[in-house]
Amino acid sequence: MPKLEINGVTCDAFVDESLLGAARRHKAHIGYACGGHGLCQTCEVIIESGMDALSPMNDVEMAWLTAEKQQKGHRLACQVQIKKDATIKFTTRAEKARRLFNNAFLAKKETLPPTSHPQGHVGEFFSFLGMETLSHLAGVPMAFGNAVGRIIDGRLTLNSINDAVSAWSERAPEIGEIINKTISGLPDAIAPVTTVITDATKNVIDAATKIIKGATGGTAAESGAKDGVQAVPIKVEKK
């Protein structure tokens, strides 16, 4: 049975299972906003060892990942299958961002790892954030073209919308916990602002989920019933 080391935690996996599937089963810190359809890049990981036990890079990964990232061992976990009984070690981009954020704003000075960035750990975090944003934006045109091609050849269907909704519902408690832990470590002057942003983000996610469910088959009556509001039928009789 293959072994995975995800963000320093060892767990079991299966041959032909995707890295994202294994990470989700073990509740690893990994993104999957699109539900695992190669539409968002949030499941990006950095393979540290065991690359030869994985499936070759496919067209979806090549569309999203720059040539530099491909050379450095970056993959999209939703697109990678485990092909051999081996040990595979990787770090998720989400976890790397969390560690850099903690070093910049939450960790005590005596526990900080060394950094070569001229602006210290804060500069290191924002440099990472900026480079990742630019990399993501650079990949959008090719990824969009790839998605259109997959829709045409039938590899990408409307089921991806339902999978994305399920992914957000699955991650909501974890996201809330991460946000609350982050807020508790911030200075008192910043925390209230962050709380407002957090509440607004949760409201947007809830509203978007209801809209998508309605557009993919949910009815207004079903949506209202879930919110505790019972739909009242109205009958109009002709005289």
Explain this structure to me?
The chain is an alpha+beta fold and 239 residues long. The protein folds into two domains: 3-157, Roll (Ubiquitin-like (UB roll)); 161-214. Helices cover 52% and strands 10% of the residues. The protein has eight helices and five strands, in the order E-E-H-E-H-H-E-E-H-H-H-H-H. It has helices at residues 19-25, 59-64, 67-71, 93-106, 120-152, 159-185, 191-215, 220-226, and strands at 3-6, 9-12, 44-49, 74-76, 87-92. The protein has a five-stranded mixed beta sheet with strand order 2-1-5-3-4. A hairpin with a 2-residue loop joins strand 1 and strand 2. Helix 4 (93-106) runs antiparallel to helix 5 and helix 6 (159-185) packs antiparallel against helix 7. It is globular. 21% of the residues are buried.
Features:
alpha+beta, Ubiquitin-like (UB roll), 5-stranded mixed beta sheet, globular
Span from first to last CA? 74 Å
Placed side by side, the strands forming the largest sheet appear as: 2-1-5-3-4
CATH superfamily of the largest domain: Beta-grasp domain
Low-confidence stretches: 219-236
What is the C-level CATH assignment of the largest domain? Alpha Beta
Radius of gyration: 21 Å
| Strand elements, count | 5
Please outline the helices and strands:
Blueprint: E1 3-6, E2 9-12, H1 19-25, E3 44-49, H2 59-64, H3 67-71, E4 74-76, E5 87-92, H4 93-106, H5 120-152, H6 159-185, H7 191-215, H8 220-226
Parallel strand pairs: 1-5
Antiparallel strand pairs: 1-2, 3-4, 3-5
